Prior knowledge:
It contains twelve helices and no strands. The protein is an all-alpha fold and 207 residues long. The chain has a single domain (3-204), classed as Orthogonal Bundle (Hypothetical protein af1432), CATH 1.10.3210.10. The longest helix has 20 residues, at 27-46. Residues 195-207 have low confidence and may be disordered. The structure holds fe (ii) ion (FE2) (2 copies). One fe (ii) ion binds at residues 32, 62-63, 142. Residues 7-198 form the HD-GYP domain. GO terms for molecular function: hydrolase activity.
Amino acid sequence: MEISESVRWVKDVCLGSLQIKLRNKDPQTALHAANTSKLAAVVAGRLGIKDTLELRLGCLLHDVGKLLLSIEPAKRKLTYTDYEVVQKHPILGYMILKEAGYPNEVAEVALYHHERIDGRGYPFGISRNEIPLFARICAVVDAFDVMVSGRPYQPRIPVAAALNELHRHSGLQFDPIVVTALAQAAPQILGTIVSPRNLAIRVSSHA
Ligand SMILES: [Fe+2]
Ligand SMILES: [Fe+2]
């Protein structure tokens, strides 16, 4: 991909309607999206991935399907019925991104980021290398950010405790190679996680 085209994409995403809509509807999910994208870039560097644009965009928009949900999952603990609704967001996100003209590599991050290495994820229950690498990276950094940032119904935990949790589920929920890469990048990621106070500034800083 040419640099000018890449720049156009990044501006399109960051200044365009999807992130702004997400931020307006659900600021915490937008903050989480920005963190996930930044963490994914750090992990990709550790894994020797040179071209990270699609990964970063996919992570920035991985939860965009939540725009179409009737509930706001980041704000409270989910009931069983809520959970069934929330499980639709990967497919909804994929549809939004394909409709908006994003390439498969970007849309597939949204589609597969809740799949698990052991095949017990959703929406399809695919496993291991059937899950695209960018989605496997997103799954790890997604979970990590939720743990270290916390939720209204779930207190944040320290980075070391979050890494321990990832290791505990490595090879089951998460790709071990990605977990190891994130753990190795721990000193680097401490300055990466965005605080809620800076949401507006940090999201626009992707442009
Ligand atoms: Fe998600
Ligand atoms: Fe997420």
